[in-house]
Amino acid sequence: MASGTCQCGTFKFTVEGSFADVRYCHCSKCRRGNGTAFTANARIRKSQWTLDGPPDKVTEFEHKPGLFKAFCSLCGSPLYARSAHDPDDIRVRLGGFEGILDVRITGHVWTSSKATWYEIEDSIPCYEQAITG
Ligand SMILES: [Zn+2]
Ligand SMILES: [Zn+2]
């Protein structure tokens, strides 16, 4: 089991089982949302996910029709992203988890939107847009 918290500790979250589609995402929304060159995120089944904390302190931002990014209203830490078209899965950011995560990054995605000031210098496959699977 993997577990983590938001920055202020209002929310604790856990994931049972393994992470899928583990990516570095360079899209402009991830860059803006995190203030960094890219995010590290993964897909899980919603049934693997537990979020402990006050529901009224979760803010969901609809960044595209039907696509929501949720964050802690108190500290701004990302909690999960969900799609109305794919209600059984969510995506989570890896940075909030503690300890050793059993994951391997399988791609840089949305490199077409990559920050001009960041160079990819590893051998992980690059994809201009999103990929599935
Ligand atoms: Zn928080
Ligand atoms: Zn992204």
Summary, kept brief:
With 133 residues, this protein is mainly β.
Mean pLDDT: 95
**What is the β-strand count?**
10
Order of helices and strands: EEEHEEEEEEE
Decide which structural class fits the backbone: mainly beta
Morphology? globular
Count of folded domains = 1
Order of strands across the widest beta sheet? 6-7-8-9-4-3-10
CATH topology label: Metal Binding Protein, Guanine Nucleotide Exchange Factor, Chain A
Q: State the name of the first-level CATH class.
A: Mainly Beta
Characterize the largest beta sheet: strand count, sense, and whether it forms a barrel. 7 strands, mixed
Low-confidence stretches: none
Alpha carbon gap, first and last residue: 22 Å
Fraction of residues in β-strands? 35-45%
